């Protein structure tokens, strides 16, 4: 469901039916990206005839996915000037996030706007997955009720988790900061809509790709909450890896004989730039919202905090040197908690990249989406699946 | 020209014409992969009707790209049982390799067989690119003459170089072991066929993908001659990076404060596992074919050589730990000179991957193609371009 790459596999038969489905998708994507627009304008943008586009548009209107905003040229013959927009009623993409210290759910319409939302602060570390997911299902129900009053119905739910998710399954292989292992989220989450599960860094990167203005189609998105993850976007799609485990930046060796890491390795990036490591080096003990405290201390010029962040930035720069040499991304985007600490992390990070001649083409930038990225990316992955194959939901929403 | 990913970009109009071209390609690919085969069998494999396939096949026969091997069921009505094969005459893909100590050119028919070949041992380090490329053009001429006697004509030439090639251009940004910088190969190579240029590791990976039995569609190919490069194959296509510079495994930091590297960094993999570093640590001075000497000494149990290779394997394991965590490839394939040294490199390399929990799904394997990979991959990239879009060469070869 997430990040289809529009790839034509050799061997897939190319039929009239397949062509029609792809063209319906192109029309819907164009209106979603540029709407409100006229039929003529859609035809021009996607390179089909006006007549072909009209047939496709009529089908999408019947399915409840497009709507006409009324004539823009009063008195015109037929409806040549009526503007098309993606429907704000009907199918909605639901996104959810299981964080180490919170749960969140939102409903997004086909235009990409969040229309309903619920959140709970709760410490999930070490709790039984079944209990956590039952609470998440309660939030899903609340958001569903709210969405229904707006004429929206969930067509799918995508769940972001801080862990490794086995590709094309609903199973979390491991989420060390939650204490989950081989957890079948799809089986344990009592909801009755199609479900997908993915790593929070992946959904965060997709949110950046789909929602941030002028986001390049190729970038490495670095995400940190408790752990450090990354996601690589290539030509507008995620590089997931064979098992779905790509992007484990937190376990790239920075100093191969450095401190032991719970992963079994030594000197992994997380041992220098993970939240726990930075807090410990700053002398900050247990308590709520410690990243805010960290930022405040750094702002105030606290020496230990500044030194800890310098060390974290240097380690990030060394690990990213390897990543940039291997992947040659257009940009590196710092997201999640890292974006709040960017003023102190960026200078040492950039220094390492520069002296090791590993600066990406467009440099290192800070996320424009912020900590909501994973939740928004999850919901939007469901919305994109509808735009990619409009007829998949047509029978749910079309009037007979 | 190299490694088209069969990707349908949103916004590309989907037309009858485009569909026909893709289906012609599917038929030709199927016969190339599985031929000789009957029309019925092609139809079954690609999921089109027998009638549709017959029309496509007739067009490919008229274009000289397919041929009929004669009826297999004598007395049948029409030609239902005649077996189809890709033509062994007509278009040929030319591949060339500029090595640090050799030049090579080959001609490959559409069946993927090398039909003509020329090679020269010559030290290219520090020579003017114009001189090197003029010599290469002479080899191309020799091979062209030989190919023509076999009824083959070059439709394109792909050149493998040991350096960074700017994506979608014929320009080598830098090839340190040749001493090339910003070298416009396309402008300096006096040949009159369409030209493409790419990194030797990329072509080596493609050769592995296209020619090795049971090669997975996702793997990291590590290649070493003088430098160390890598290429990542994802879903059957190369990950090139934004500028075309992806795969620079040789400059992944292994020990961030290690020895200085000419790239500007410190402790890069090449400082531990590059040919120069290993030869120096083994106490082997200047001379011809030093990798053979290295293998002989290791075989004989020479302590310095064994220790040097152990160090190289360990460094490779550390750098690959980062690469596997970032990319999650199905396998790591050791190619080029590394494949000859695999007996001594593999054990320390695997030990690092295992203790750092970075073993790829299918482990580390040794290339089945060997040092010819880049040359074969280059030629086959031209052949694949014909299979991907048969009509691109139809006007060159079709009888009127």
UniProtKB/TrEMBL annotation, chains A, B:
InterPro entries: ATPase_NBD, HTH_MarR-typ, ROK, WH-like_DNA-bd_sf, WH_DNA-bd_sf. Residues 1-10 have a biased composition (Basic residues). Residues 26-68 form the HTH marR-type domain. SUPFAM superfamilies: Actin-like ATPase domain, Winged helix' DNA-binding domain. Signal peptide: none annotated. It comes from the Bacteria. Gene3D superfamilies: 3.30.420.40, Winged helix-like DNA-binding domain superfamily/Winged helix DNA-binding domain. Coiled coil: none annotated. Residues 1-22 are annotated as: Disordered. Belongs to the ROK (NagC/XylR) family. PANTHER family: BIFUNCTIONAL UDP-N-ACETYLGLUCOSAMINE 2-EPIMERASE_N-ACETYLMANNOSAMINE KINASE, ROK (REPRESSOR, ORF, KINASE) FAMILY. This is ROK family transcriptional regulator.
């Amino acid at each position: 469901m997430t990040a289809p790459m529009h790839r034509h596999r050799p061997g897939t038969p190319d039929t009239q039916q397949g062509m029609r489905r792809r063209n319906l998708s192109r029309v819907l994507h164009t209106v979603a990206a540029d709407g409100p627009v006229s039929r003529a304008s859609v035809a021009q943008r996607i390179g089909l005839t006006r007549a072909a586009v009209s047939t496709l548009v009529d089908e999408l209107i019947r399915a409840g996915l497009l709507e006409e905003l009324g004539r823009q040229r009063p008195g015109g013959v037929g409806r040549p000037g009526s503007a098309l927009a993606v429907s704000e009623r009907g199918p909605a993409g639901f996104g959810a996030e299981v964080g180490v210290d919170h749960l969140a759910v939102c409903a997004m319409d086909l235009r990409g706007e969040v229309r309903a939302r619920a959140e709970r602060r709760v410490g999930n570390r070490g709790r039984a997955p079944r209990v956590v997911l039952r609470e998440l299902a309660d939030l899903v129900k609340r958001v569903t009720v709210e969405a229904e009053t707006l004429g929206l119905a969930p067509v799918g739910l995508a769940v972001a988790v801080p862990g490794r998710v086995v590709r094309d399954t609903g199973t979390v292989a491991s989420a060390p900061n939650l204490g989950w292992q081989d957890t079948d989220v799809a089986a344990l989450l009592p909801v009755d809509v199609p479900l997908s599960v993915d790593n929070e860094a992946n959904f965060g990167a997709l949110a950046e790709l789909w929602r941030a203005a002028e986001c390049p189609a190729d970038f490495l998105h670095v995400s940190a909450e408790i752990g450090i993850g990354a996601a690589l976007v290539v030509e507008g799609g995620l590089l997931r890896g064979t098992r779905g485990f790509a992007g484990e930046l937190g376990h790239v060796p920075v100093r191969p004989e450095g401190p032991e890491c719970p992963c079994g390795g030594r000197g992994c990036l997380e041992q220098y730039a993970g939240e726990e490591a930075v807090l410990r080096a700053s002398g900050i003990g247990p308590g709520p919202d410690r990243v805010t405290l960290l930022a405040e201390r750094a702002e105030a010029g606290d020496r230990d905090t500044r030194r800890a962040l310098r060390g974290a930035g240097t380690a990030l720069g060394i690990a990213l040197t390897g990543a940039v040499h291997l992947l040659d991304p257009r940009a590196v985007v710092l997201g999640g908690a890292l974006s709040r600490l960017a003023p102190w992390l960026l200078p040492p990070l950039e220094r390492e990249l520069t002296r090791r001649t590993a600066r990406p083409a467009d440099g290192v930038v800070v996320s424009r989406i912020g900590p909501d990225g994973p939740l928004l990316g999850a919901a939007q992955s469901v919305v994109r699946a509808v735009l990619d194959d409009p007829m998949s939901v047509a029978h749910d929403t079309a009037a007979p």
